[in-house]
Amino acid sequence: ETESVKNIQWITGNNFTVERGQQQIEEYISTWDVHRSWLHCSEFLQEEELRYSKRYHYRVCWSVPTRRKPIPRATASIYFVIEISKIKPATLPVEVFFTLESSRLIHRPEQCQFREKWLKDIIENKIILMERL
């Protein structure tokens, strides 16, 4: 069972803007196989200055609102980082990686296929936790 990893053509460092980065994240997410009941919103969080690169942090918040519960009990966040090297040529595509809320594992768009189950797991775990409290 080999799934083809869906990715997009990422922008080059010299063409990057915060807005364009957010558009590209939206474009990348549109390749994911998630049920249409999932809604999301994305936002730019911050710019981080490192010695050899600049990192732009974004958050995409997911939930499944329903008619009976328009405000979901829990949401799942995915954190994206777009990194622009200060050393490599600016004509190369930006580096992109993402992490799931509550996980340290770093995913790269070109290496992994997103799973809807990840979102479900985050939300289920939060609801279990809230019920315990």
UniProtKB/TrEMBL annotation:
It holds the Pfam family AKAP28. GO terms for cellular component: cAMP-dependent protein kinase complex. One of its GO terms (molecular function) is protein kinase A regulatory subunit binding. InterPro entries: AKAP, AKAP_28. This is AKA14 protein. It comes from Glareola pratincola.
